[in-house]
Structure formats: structure tokens, C-alpha cells
Design goal:
The protein is mainly α and 766 residues long. The protein is built from 42 helices and no strands. The protein is globular. It comes from Streptomyces lonegramiae.
């Protein structure tokens, strides 16, 4: 569900009745999924253009969020959306008014069709393009057109012509609109589209040239137009950016993954087959023949290139659909196992990859996706005889697929149990054998994810080892949701013993800490460990509470401990919204408030700890409690005078503002302390103006003298902030002459924001 989104094109437009208004409000602020879906349907099928347009905008926006890990709950209504979008496209474009642009109904319809348009929509999209007077409509039409053309066996000549009309419309000032239309033409596999792309390469506009050339590298056009594209690309600057870089990549062609620099010129047939894969002639039969020629050749480089083409999205995936590639899998995987039975290829055969490039290509092609449990013996042998890290890394991922029995037939797994046990033993060596270092993370992942509970003894053994990186990776695997409950106590003891500063595997160690302890450690005491076992248990309870009563007992244990760190951690958990409030609600603070306030005031009477953590925890607790006593003024004044850490200084001033605003007690010591801070030229101006802001909150006339004195400071920002404090009644009437003199001295341009408010206050009184 999408919260907070109004629409793309209908901001400011009014819906005709309360029912539609309520439905729109539900879309913007969803209460629950079924209500959201009812509201979406209500707007979509309302018959009202604005309401339907808003629903269509939500459909597309919700779908766009899926690219970032979101979920589209309205995707199920694709057929309804398509029907409503088509109905809007059959209507004339809505006129422009003060709230939206001309053709907003078409823009919403076409935008919603961006990923669901069908070949039958070609004429509607072409009509919308012809009528469009707004860039939003043209852009949405181009996106919908590309989808419709891609889905069509025979592209619509009318839609291709409509896109061409936009692409070559020189009255359009934005070249991006023209190239967007030309880009949509790429999807049309017909002579008319090709003619438009050729025409674009002859344009005097380089962007049109580039997009025309890029289009000629798609849909089987490249073989017939490669020379044209080469000549054109040679005229572009060497540093020409995207999409010119894509054109140059196409001219280079995809050679392979692990055989770069390898040439097959010793065998003309293999060389021709490789050229066909790199630069297809457009004949699918020729493409398939070329692939099989390389795959089944006795040449290790040729076979390796074919295996690379199978695995890479730049290879077969650049031309064939996924189901066609899947159909090749049995043939390719069988050939890959054959290659693994051959001797490793020498390094000179593939200089970039080095030794055993043939085995690396074969293992990469098999990956974790294609092996069977019966392959355990084969991959165990590969791992045992491997001499290069590249082979070992790829072989471990194949072992993952062999050992992962989630989708395997249990009977077939049982038949191969001895081979499977041998493979587990070999994979384990990459964790425990120092001579095989460098693959422990992959090996632990293979064991932890593929074996399930069977891996627990191995992970516990790794956790007990001396190698820090292996230790952390094992802890990470044991802290996964499927294992953590069984091993929580051991993990808690283990993580408590880790050093505060972790030099290697720091990120993973932090993930383990969060998984094991759940909530925050503290706010101001991160990195401090409680050595006392009882206090340590209490701290764990605050981080991962069991029930509220136990939580409060743990909090009081820390508060009454007499240990500065323990008390500070307790105060942090009491005041912060990720502590007590997160688990049991804000009202739960009341139970421990008297004890918290007593400890906070004790902490403020003591000197500041390093970085002032004790004062920070206490100040925040005092501020959140908002239960002031007369003696707090002297406490706060003392903290302000002692504070050397900027964070403590800022927090103290913030707390003082609350104290002065919420009480009627204007303590003279606190007021004079704030005044001294405001005039202290050794302090940053921001701290001095914060002190003046606190003085402004003082009750009655108590702070007036200090504000007047601060107007005599040289810094303009300090002057202006002090003067702003004097604009509050009844001070303004008494100090009007002073304020007028100050304003007359201040610049009219570039003065601090407070100066503008002072001027406005004087003008308002006049």
C-alpha cells in the first residue's frame, strides 16, 4: 500500500462527492489492506475522470515501488486498470485549467499502461500521440508504445509512424522527448522501424544519431547495419557518454567471461561461429547452430566461450528468451561436466583468467542452480584436485546446489549419502584448514544454508575457533532466525566477550550483535560492557524484554547499582523512544520516574565523565520527565558552567529552555550563567544564541537585563538574537529606542533571520 501519495496529475482537482473523497483519503492514508483495495476499486470504476485518473496513478506508482523492494497490492487489478485506461483514451483529452495540464486523463491512462499495454492498444496509443500537446502525455505514450510493440508478433505500422512523427518533430524543443519516441521504435521488428532508425543516424543532431545507431544494434538489425554504425561512432568524441558507450560496447560485442583476449582464428569454422554469437545476422537458426558448434567442439576455449554465453545475461540472454535458454540447460550442464573431466586448460590459453579457465567456465555454467544430489561425487573430486582459487570458489557454489535438498527427492538423496558425506567433509575443510584460507565465508554459507540443522555442529565448532573472521561468520549463521532460539544463550555469552572495537568483520559483527540483543545497547554508552554478571543480565533484559514486570525489575537493578555506566544505560532506556517506550508504551515510564529522577540529579551533581555521557543521560531523563524541583536551576547552572563538550552544552541549553518555559521560577544564578555564556566570545556563536533563546523563555522580566547586555556584543547574530528577546511584551515598549538604534545599524541585505523579525516587530507596533 502507498501512504502519502496523492496522484501524478490531479493535485488540486476536486472530487464530486464525499464517497470519492473518502476513498481517496483511504488511498493516501491506508487503514488496512481490504479498505485500501475497496477504495481503489471505488475510484477506478467511479466513471469520474478525476477519480479514475487518481486510481490509475496509484496503480502505476505502486508498481514502480516494487523496484525498491515494495509490494503492489493493486497489481491483481491489471485487467480492470487496462479496461478503464482504454476507456479514458477513447475520450477527448481533458482541457487545460488552473489545476492540471491538457490531456491529463490520457497521461494517467498511458502511464498505467506502461507495463501492461497489449498489441491491441496500438491504435489508441497512436491516437493519443497524435492529439498530445503536453510532454507528460507524450512521454507516457512512448512507454506504453514500447510495451505494445514488444508484445506484438507484427508491429503496428500506424504506431511506428506515430512515434516517428514525434521523433522527427523539430518543433519540440526538448530533444529528450524526441529520443524517447525513437527509443520506443527499437521494439518494433519491421522495415518501417529500421528505416526510421537509419534516418535518425543521418540527423545533424548527435543525440538522434546515437539513438538511431543504438536502435540498429537491436532486434537483429546489427548485421546489416554494422558498417554504418561503425562509421558513425568513429565521428563521436572518444569520451562520449551514455548511450554512445552502449553503441561502442555493441561494436565490440560480448566475447566471453573467462576467455577475453582468446582468438579462435586457428579454426575458421569456430571463428565464424563465435562471430555469429557476437554479431548475430538475425537468423535464429544460424545463432543456435553457432552456439552448438562452439559448445560441442573439442576446443577448450570454444567450449568455454559457449558455456560463458549460456550463463551471462550479455550472452544468450541478449537475444533469446528465458524459456529458450532454460531448454538448453540439460545439454549445457552435461557438456560442462564433461569439461570438468578434462585436464585444466593452461594459463596461456586464457591469459586474463589463467590456469583452468575451462573448469571455471564449466562450474560457472552449472552454478548452484543446475546440479543434482547425484553430482556429489563429481563435485567432491573437483574440489579435491582444484589448484586455483577461481575453481575452488565456483566449485563451492556448485556444492551448494548439490547439498541443498529443499527441492530434491529424499530417496535420491539417500542413495548418494556416502558421496554427500564426503562432500560435506571437503567443504568443511575450507572452514577449518588454514591452508585453504580465503573461502571460509562461502563455505560457511554453503554449510549453513544448504544443510539446515545438520550444519549446527560444524557452525559451533567454527564459533569455538581462534580465527576471528571465521568466528564472526559462524556467529552470523547461528544468529539467523531459524537457529537463534536454540543457540541464544551461547551467542549472548560469546558476543558479550567480543572487543568493543572490531578491526575486521566489523559490519558482520554488528549484525550479529543486533540479531542477538535485539534492541539498542544505549544512547550515550555504546561500547561500554558491564562486567558484573547480574548487571549484564539486567542489561540484556532491557534490550530483549520478556515481560513488563521483569523489565522494570531489570531497570531498577541498574539504577540502584551505584555503577556510573549501568545507571547511564538505565537512564537511556528510560527516556529514549526506542527503549522502554518502544516495548511498553510511554505511560510505562511513570512506574520508575521517582527513582530515575533521583539518579539523574545525582549524576548531574558529579563531574562530567569522558565525553560527558553521564550528564547527557541525566539531562535527557530530566527533560523527558518534566517534573522540576526548585533545586534543578542550580544543578543546570552548574552543568552549563562545567560543560566542555559541545553536545553536553547543547543538551543542557535545550533542557534549560524546557525548565524556564515550564516553571515560574527565574533563578538568578541560572539567568546570570546564561547571560555570561551569551557574552563569552570564546564560544561558538551557535551556542551563544542558544543561551539567548533559553533566556527568552525565562518568566517575567528576569532575563531582560541579560538580553540588553548581550545587544552590546560585536557579533551581529548575537545582537539580533538578543534584540529578538526584547520584542516580547512588555519588553518591546520599554526598549523601543534601543531596538530602533540597532536596526538602523544593521544591513538590509544578508542580515540574520532574527534581524528581520525585530524589524517586523517594530513595524507592527507602529
Amino acid at each position: 500500500m502507498v501512504a502519502g501519495f496523492h496522484s501524478f496529475h490531479w493535485e488540486g482537482c476536486e472530487l464530486p462527492d464525499a464517497e470519492l473523497e473518502q476513498a481517496h483519503h483511504e488511498l493516501m492514508a491506508p487503514t488496512e489492506e481490504q479498505a485500501y483495495l475497496r477504495a481503489f476499486r471505488t475510484l477506478l470504476h467511479s466513471g469520474n475522470t478525476i477519480a479514475a485518473g487518481i486510481a490509475l496513478d496509484h496503480f502505476q506508482y505502486s508498481g514502480a515501488l516494487t523496484r525498491f523492494g515494495g509490494e503492489s497490492v493493486v497489481e491483481q487489478y491489471g485487467p480492470d486498470v487496462l479496461a478503464v485506461a482504454r476507456e479514458l483514451l477513447r475520450r477527448p483529452p481533458t482541457p487545460e485549467d488552473e489545476d492540471t495540464f491538457a490531456g491529463a486523463n490520457h497521461a494517467s491512462a498511458l502511464n498505467a499502461m506502461m507495463n501492461i499495454a497489449e498489441p491491441a492498444d496500438a491504435d489508441l496509443i497512436a491516437d493519443a500521440l497524435a492529439l498530445a500537446t503536453n510532454a507528460n502525455v507524450r512521454s507516457a505514450a512512448c512507454s506504453a508504445a514500447a510495451t505494445a510493440l514488444d508484445a506484438a508478433e507484427t508491429p503496428s505500422p500506424r504506431l511506428v509512424a506515430a512515434l516517428g512523427a514525434v521523433a522527427f518533430d523539430e518543433s519540440l524543443e526538448d530533444m529528450g522527448e524526441r529520443t524517447e519516441a525513437l527509443h520506443a521504435v527499437f521494439e518494433a521488428d519491421d522495415p518501417e522501424a529500421t528505416a526510421l532508425l537509419v534516418r535518425a543516424t543521418e540527423s545533424g543532431e548527435r543525440r538522434m544519431q546515437v539513438y538511431g545507431a543504438l536502435g540498429l544494434t537491436t532486434n537483429g538489425r546489427f548485421h546489416d547495419h554494422r558498417e554504418r554504425v561503425e562509421r558513425l561512432a568513429a565521428t563521436w568524441p572518444q569520451d562520449a557518454q551514455y548511450p554512445a558507450s552502449l553503441v561502442r560496447e555493441a561494436l565490440t560485442g560480448f566475447h566471453s567471461i573467462y576467455w577475453l583476449g582468446t582468438r579462435l582464428d586457428s579454426d575458421p569454422e569456430l571463428e565464424r561461429a563465435h562471430a555469429e554469437l557476437m554479431f548475430p545476422t538475425g537468423s535464429e537458426d544460424a545463432y543456435h547452430r553457432a552456439f552448438r558448434t562452439l559448445l560441442h567442439s573439442g576446443n577448450p576455449a570454444a567450449a568455454g566461450i559457449a558455456l560463458d554465453y549460456f550463463q551471462s545475461w550479455q550472452g544468450l540472454g541478449n537475444l533469446l528468451h528465458e524459456d529458450e535458454i532454460e531448454a538448453y540447460a540439460p545439454e549445457v550442464v552435461a557438456r560442462a561436466w564433461e569439461v570438468l573431466g578434462d585436464p585444466p586448460s593452461p594459463p596461456e590459453l586464457s591469459p586474463d583468467t589463467g590456469e583452468a579457465a575451462n573448469h571455471i567456465s564449466a562450474l560457472n555454467a552449472i552454478g548452484a542452480r543446475w546440479p543434482q544430489p547425484s553430482d556429489a561425487r563429481l563435485i567432491a573430486e573437483v574440489l579435491e584436485r582444484a589448484t586455483s582459487d577461481g575453481v575452488r570458489d565456483k566449485a563451492l557454489w556448485v556444492a551448494y546446489g548439490v547439498l541443498d535438498t529443499d527441492d530434491a527427492d529424499e530417496a535420491s538423496v539417500g542413495d548418494d549419502e556416502p558421496d554427500r558425506e564426503r562432500l560435506v567433509d571437503i567443504v568443511s575443510r575450507f572452514v577449518f584448514d588454514p591452508s585453504l584460507s580465503g573461502h571460509h565465508e562461502t563455505a560457511l554459507r554453503v554449510l549453513g544454508e544448504a544443510l539446515g540443522p545438520e550444519a549446527n555442529p560444524l557452525l559451533l565448532r567454527a564459533l569455538a575457533g581462534d580465527d576471528w573472521d571465521i568466528h564472526v561468520q559462524a556467529a552470523w549463521r547461528l544468529s539467523r532466525p531459524e537457529r537463534i532460539d536454540e543457540h541464544r544463550e551461547l551467542l549472548e555469552e560469546t558476543v558479550e566477550g567480543w572487543p568493543v572495537e572490531v578491526m575486521s568483520s566489523a559490519h558482520d559483527a554488528d549484525l550479529v550483535r543486533r540479531a542477538v540483543f535485539g534492541g539498542m545497547h544505549s544512547v550515550h554508552w555504546e561500547g561500554h560492557r558491564l562486567a558484573d554478571p547480574g548487571l549484564c543480565r539486567a542489561h540484556r533484559e532491557l534490550r530483549t524484554p520478556g515481560d513488563e514486570d521483569t523489565y522494570h525489575r531489570a531497570l531498577r537493578t541498574l539504577l540502584d547499582s551505584g555503577q556510573e555506566v549501568a545507571v547511564g544505560i538505565a537512564l537511556d532506556h528510560w527516556f529514549h523512544d526506542k527503549g522502554l517506550e518502544r516495548h511498553f508504551g510511554e505511560q510505562a515510564r511513570a512506574i520508575d520516574t521517582p527513582q530515575v529522577l533521583a539518579r539523574a540529579r545525582e549524576a548531574l551533581r558529579r563531574p562530567p565523565s569522558p565525553a560527558g555521557a553521564n550528564h547527557l543521560s541525566a539531562l535527557n531523563a530530566l527533560r523527558v520527565a518534566r517534573s522540576w524541583e526548585p533545586g534543578d536551576a542550580a544543578l543546570l547552572a552548574g552543568v552549563l558552567r562545567q560543560a566542555t563538550d559541545p553536545e553536553v552544552h547543547s543538551c543542557a541549553l535545550y533542557t534549560v529552555s524546557g525548565f524556564l518555559y515550564e516553571t515560574n521560577a527565574a533563578d538568578g544564578e541560572l539567568i546570570s550563567t546564561l547571560g555570561a555564556l551569551a557574552r563569552d566570545e570564546s564560544l561558538p556563536v551557535s551556542q551563544r544564541t542558544s543561551a539567548l533563546g533559553s533566556l527568552r523563555d525565562a518568566p517575567g522580566n528576569a532575563a531582560t537585563e541579560e538580553l540588553v547586555r548581550a545587544t552590546g556584543c560585536e557579533e551581529l547574530e548575537v545582537q539580533a538574537t538578543a534584540a529578538l528577546g526584547l520584542t516580547d511584551e512588555p519588553r518591546l515598549a520599554d526598549h523601543r529606542a534601543l531596538l530602533s538604534r540597532l536596526v538602523a545599524q544593521w544591513p538590509t541585505e544578508g542580515a540574520p533571520w532574527a534581524a528581520d523579525f525585530v524589524r517586523e516587530a517594530l513595524e507592527a507596533q507602529d
